[in-house]
């Protein structure tokens, strides 16, 4: 019961903090400046240009694609590192732990 009360207190606290953030930002100053965040694509070409244009057009799809690419890239790089270490003679699958 105590854990459930702590969980609800934490959730309500987070909700109140999120609800109070816009009020704090508005209280900081009078007029808000319009800021546009874009990637500079003037000197880019190929896949870098495509990536920057995706960022400029839709931050949501950019985030989704980034979250999909990072784990796949990590798996590929880990697999390549395993192959390189195996060719160097480092076998991490059958190692003995010397600390007892």
Summarize the structure.
This protein is mainly α. It is built from 3 helices and no strands. It starts with a helix and ends in a 12-residue tail after the last helix.
Secondary-structure-based class equals: mainly alpha
* Residues in β-strands, percent: under 5%
Q: What does the radius of gyration come to? A: 24 Å
| Low-confidence runs | none
SSE series: HHH
Instruction: Determine the fraction of residues in helical runs and give it as a percent range.
Output: 55-70%
- Total separate domains: 1
Tell me how many strands there are: 0
Total helical segments: 3
Indicate the mean pLDDT. Answer: 84
Whole-Å distance between the termini? 41 Å
Described by its quaternary structure, the protein is single chain
**Largest pleated sheet:** none
Principal-axis shape equals: flat
Question: What does it look like?
Answer:
It is a single chain. By secondary structure, the chain is mostly helical. The chain has one domain. The protein has helices spanning 2-28, 47-57, 59-88. Helix 2 (47-57) runs antiparallel to helix 3. The radius of gyration is 24 Å and the shape is flat. The model has no long low-confidence stretch (mean pLDDT 84).
